[in-house]
Amino acid sequence: MEILEIFKTTFTDMNIISAITSTMFIILLGYYCRKKNIFSDQVGKMLSRVVLSVALPALALKAFMKDIDQQSLAEGMGILIWGIAIYIILIIVSKPMYAKFKGDKEDTLRVLTIFGSTTFFGIPIVGAIYGAEGVLYASIFNIGYRIFLYSYGYIKMSGLKMEAKNIKEMFLNPIVIATFVGLFIWVFQDSLPQMSVVAADGTASTVAFLRIDQTAPWLFKPMTYLASLASPLAWLAIGATLGSVDFKTAISDRTSLIYSANKVVLVPIINIVILAILSLTGILTMSAVSVGTIVIMMAAPTATVAAAYAISFDKDALLASNASLLSTISAVVMVPIWIIVINMITSTNLF
């Protein structure tokens, strides 16, 4: 397919265009509401809590309510492997990336670069573009993220050994619980006790009793409503947060600008290059949806937990705050570009 044809296909795909405009417009709405004091300075935090505690767990669990086959299982396992491998790679690569910085500044920049807001920022956008399939793969990809964020990230920033409270946070987080429960149902659905269900067209079939999308629609429907809140509420929260901060101070920090470029541009490029090599050599092949999901997740801005580590352990807290702000602005600008780039790359059948 020629480049011009790829451009034409991309810019006439209403799913892509609608996902981009929805993201941008709702973030801008949140920003406007905060600037006009329609939203108080607490709205961003409140919306974030709702998204992280209710909407995203529902979205993650809902994504696993689908049939499984060998292809989707193999795809999921490939994403799980890559979701662990990429953090090991970034731990290594981030060292020379910030070689000229020393001490706390180097540690903070490395941790903030390795860990992005894949859950709060990435998954809602993935869901808007790729639907349930994208959310399913994003949830599997995030397993490695959680493991390294609450182990390596904590140890690096605190200088202490792993504490029990972080292990608890790692495994008892609502999103993690929903992900593992959903993953269990999805993978083992053929081995679980079965129930007979009758479809709307009168066709009878047997499914795992935990497939509540078919066995308990009265329970699945409210979960669907909650899941649908994830994207708009997350985008409103991002806009409201941006409306509460001072851009001038942050944008004058050259280190934060360098970090933002690394986080939302260089890290996704690293993923694309390595995944392309793995695909061409046949070591690890992924679908276009999987690659797109991974790139969007890795183009996410600073993870809230990573920034909180820097502030809590006094590891250049001002840098972490500025970096978080600038990377969020950069990600809002770059994600639409990455969506177009991903579509162009996958149109070449590289993946």
From TrEMBL:
<feature type="transmembrane region" description="Helical">
    <location>
        <begin position="136"/>
        <end position="155"/>
    </location>
</feature>
<protein>
    <recommendedName>
        <fullName>Malate permease</fullName>
    </recommendedName>
</protein>
<keyword id="KW-0472">Membrane</keyword>
<feature type="transmembrane region" description="Helical">
    <location>
        <begin position="223"/>
        <end position="243"/>
    </location>
</feature>
<keyword id="KW-0812">Transmembrane</keyword>
<feature type="transmembrane region" description="Helical">
    <location>
        <begin position="264"/>
        <end position="284"/>
    </location>
</feature>
<feature type="transmembrane region" description="Helical">
    <location>
        <begin position="290"/>
        <end position="311"/>
    </location>
</feature>
<keyword id="KW-1133">Transmembrane helix</keyword>
<dbReference type="Pfam" id="PF03547">
    <property type="entry name" value="Mem_trans"/>
</dbReference>
<dbReference type="GO" id="GO:0055085">
    <property type="term" value="P:transmembrane transport"/>
</dbReference>
<feature type="transmembrane region" description="Helical">
    <location>
        <begin position="167"/>
        <end position="188"/>
    </location>
</feature>
<feature type="transmembrane region" description="Helical">
    <location>
        <begin position="16"/>
        <end position="34"/>
    </location>
</feature>
<feature type="transmembrane region" description="Helical">
    <location>
        <begin position="77"/>
        <end position="99"/>
    </location>
</feature>
<keyword id="KW-0813">Transport</keyword>
<dbReference type="GO" id="GO:0016020">
    <property type="term" value="C:membrane"/>
</dbReference>
<feature type="transmembrane region" description="Helical">
    <location>
        <begin position="323"/>
        <end position="345"/>
    </location>
</feature>
<dbReference type="InterPro" id="IPR004776">
    <property type="entry name" value="Mem_transp_PIN-like"/>
</dbReference>
<keyword id="KW-1003">Cell membrane</keyword>
